[in-house]
Amino acid sequence: MSSASMSTAARAAATNVPTPIRAITTPLRTTAAPPIPPASQLYEPLAKSVLRRRLTTRIFPYSLLVSLLSTALSLLWFGRFSLLRLAGASVALWLGGLLPVVFLRKSYLTVTHTSAPSPLSLLNKSFTPPLSKRTTHAIQTHLLSALLTFATHVALDSRVPVFIKSRKHPYTPHPVLVLLALTQCILASLYVLRAILRDVWVFPFRRPTLSPSPSGVVAPLFLALFAPFAALLVLFVVVPILRYLPIVSILLRPIVHPRLSVLRVVPRAWAVAAQTAWGWEATGGVWSWAVGEPLYTTPAVRALVSGISVAQTPAPVPSASAASSAFSTPSSLTRASSFLNPSSSSSAFSSSSTAPTTPPSPPSIYTHLAYTELLALASSTDPAAAKTRGAEVFDVDGAVWGRLVREALVLLGREYQVLLARGGEVPTSSAPPPAAPSSSSSASGGMLTPRINLITPVKDKNIFAPKAASSPGARVSAALASGGALESVVVPLVPAVPAVPLNMNNIGLNNLGITLSIPEVKWQWAPLVKAVAPLMPGWVRRVLEGVGRVGMGGVPRAWREVRKGREAAGWVPRREVCVGVVEGEFLVLAFVILSSLLMLTFPPLPAVLTHLTCASLTEDRFGVVQRDIPRILEALISFLGAVEQAQASLRPAKSEGEMPEEEKVLIGVLGVVGEVVGVSGGEGGVSAGVEGEAGNKDKDGSENENEKEGKKEGKKAEREERERRRRAEMVHLEEARTVLGEVGDALKDGIARITRTFGDKLRAFRFPPRTAARLQEFVEFHVAQ
């Protein structure tokens, strides 16, 4: 050993300084996985590019073909067919008549159904915020499209008069032009009404085809047939009445009084209306066919998982206990369920926090499209798909799986809250205010612990003293019970009467504190009908009776009638997306309302969660899914319990004896009309017989018999109406149970899939007692099979 090294060691030992240790370098890296970006940065641009390509390669060419065929038929009808005129008119009709409808569907595409108990309630809901903007834009778009289609028709056919032949008023529109334009406006309004009832702005969950449906052919034809007659009614009846109004008459001055000669253009009005309605219907079918197909944007699972983001909360932190769940009963008062409160800052896997967060965004069409693509990956049996699941979904860091299961549980939790609220507004939980810091804790810098005052304040009065009576009657009763004198009690009850002023005319009822309740006088139709009906001819009375019976059981009642099926559909407005998280079956439910076919479908989405959970048994090498299986099963079972509870609450709300007041009045009026008709028949029979006293007796007897027959007919009509209401209510209840049953069946299939896959291995997990008891039923059912 050299002298220099010995001197260095001696110097270090003298100063007692330790020798520095340097770490050994290694090529291994333990960096965390990058966070998954939101959908607006990763998945939505990919989905929008695919949808934009479909818009330019499918929707635009097919809608242009529809315009070409419609224009060709018009030119053949006019007898002025030429290729140049065909090309120009087709492009004009496509730009002005069909593209506005496409852009309207594109702007208001959604996955949330607009549900209401009755068609009238649905219409009222469509004209209230936030749906009023969509309805207003729909009316404006269809009016513009209808008028531009009519303008193209007028440009092609020069025989349609535009202005009247008058030197004094050369620019006054011709009544034929007014009739055709009014027909187009009424057609646009009727088509928007049909679109509201069918809820056409919802994403086409059922894969449509280009083949036209019967309702798509018949409904536009029916609207086109009705529009010209409604226009004639407005032109010949409503407009002449409005001319008597002071201000409206000035606006209607350019419209000439129509003549009966305009009836010759009714077939043309019907043809133009049918052309317009069928063009809209064909364009809507092409739109649904192009948009409803599943997307294939990217094979990257991280991009697909970013598309299902609905929660604006921090990244999940794995819980220390595998038994704690979003649906389990909290072990302390400070622990809350993140499933029941999805807007809170705690996720489905961590304890609750009091930090305020922004409310979650509603599911969009991209959420449904991302779940559809994830389903194809989760349910595939291809070895390449299994390799992709093991490498990306069940990775060692668990970032992809944690994000996926968290978003799925948050989405189910929000729909669970909507179901518990029966379609109403879900109350948002606000964070509690922070405790005021104390001087001692702030000075020491320790934890701020709120102090709870457990000392009961002492009352500064005699607790054994009798309580004073709150009312004069109670004081009199107390005096009688105690045996005391009543003078001391009655005298204070008499208030001091002020001096009455001499001017009695200035005294009002309000000054004396007197309120008069005037009973509401209801209009009685039966006496009026009984007095007027004998003055009418017999055939008029019979026609009125038939019209009344048809109106009682026709469109007005169906327009206001509450449907339990539509009401239950509002309890689960996004059932397609929420069912897609659990199950993967295509189910169709049809409702027919006023000649409108409403298709509600249940596409595959919840199978993503259950299929991946089942695949983790053999493909999850690191166990990232195992800690979340209790939470998933508890969430599904709790949602299933809420669905079954909602199904059990569906029962007849009214007894058979209760009827609406207006229907009782209508039945009474019909009975009076029938009685008058019978009396008039008896009078005819008596007048043909013997006159005199015997004839009067026979007449009185026939009147009594006819009155009895009228009462019997009224009671019979009332019994028939009760029976009809009972049958209709049972049908509506069955429809409501079907709507909820589809969601319940999807949840049952998802739970059964997990229990069949894991079997006895579920004993390794800890569940709450209620969840374990319900899960045992599925296990026993699987063993019994």
TrEMBL record:
Transmembrane segments: 59-78, 84-104, 176-197, 217-245, 584-605
Record GO terms (molecular function): protein-macromolecule adaptor activity
UniProt-annotated location(s): Nucleus membrane; Nucleus, Nuclear pore complex
InterPro entries recorded: Nucleoporin_prot_Ndc1/Nup
Keyword check for Membrane: yes
Major subcellular location class: nucleus
GO terms for cellular component: nuclear membrane; nuclear pore transmembrane ring; spindle pole body
Membrane topology according to the record: Multi-pass membrane protein
Pfam families for the chain: Ndc1_Nup
Keywords: Membrane, mRNA transport, Nuclear pore complex, Nucleus, Protein transport, Translocation, Transmembrane, Transmembrane helix, Transport
Annotated stretches, region: Disordered: 425-447, 684-726
Family stated for the protein in its record: Belongs to the NDC1 family.
Designated name of the protein: Uncharacterized protein
